[in-house]
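Reviewers of the previous submission asked for a worked example of the structure-prediction workflow described in the proposal, so we include one complete record here. The input consisted solely of the amino acid sequence. No template or homolog information was supplied to the procedure at any stage.
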Amino acid sequence: MAAKISASMVKELRERTSLGMLECKKALAEADGDIELAIENLRKSSGMKAAKKAGRTAADGVVATKVADDNSYGIIVEVNSETDFVARDEGFLGFVNTVLDAAFEAKQTDVAALMEGDLEERRQALVQKIGENIGVRRIEMLESANVGAYTHSNNRIAVLVALTGGENSVAKDVAMHTAAVNPRVAKPEDMPEEVLVKEKEIILAQPDMAGKPAEIAEKMVGGRIKKFLAENSLVEQDFVKNPEIKIGKLVKDAGAEVASFVRFEVGEGIEVEKVDFADEVAAALK
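From that input alone, the workflow returned the following structure tokens.
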């Protein structure tokens, strides 16, 4: 039995691909309602670039960072709430800072271990007071000669960048760039093999590859993979504050190299079931 294609599914696919309604509806029907498969098929058939990420990240909350005075290490945390309203509550933000300080002092990235005892009691008390579920989702730490941090003004995106040296202002600039541009990896060689395999598969399935001799197709694939890596690798990206220079050169000119980075965005990777408002009302009436 074919899956029912709802208006909300078509709307989401349109938002993520910028394609027409009929084209999106057809793609969803062919993919039996699977939005991710529809996007992959559209990329193969039309040469469309990668679609926007799914918007189904209803988990709310904030991210926060803290870096040592000597810039030798930094901690980044994500703490979730159910609504944006609670994410702005002073009591909630105080709890986030308590979690951040505790993780920073202990250099602890294991959420379960950190939350044992007093912190878990505080979390439960806050849940009782506010009336929403609150959870510490993830913590990471970077250590290097020069760790810089950047937190977007709405506390929904935060980044830690580790450089091998240089001034901390450069590390902060790279962190700001990473927050804005969202690279997948630090360097081209860091790209997972399975991602490259999937990208090659998509490139080979695009219309302009049809009938090409093997040697020409290989060159075309190589060129497009090189472009894909340049667009998605931090060191190969044009610096947002000065597009005339790439991040790799910016850092090199400062006497350092990019060692690694961590970028947290609130709710990324969490899929929450969407309920159509009309259906929700109808269900409540029943």
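The first strand starts at residue 60 and ends at 67. We consider this example representative of the routine output the project will generate in years two and three.
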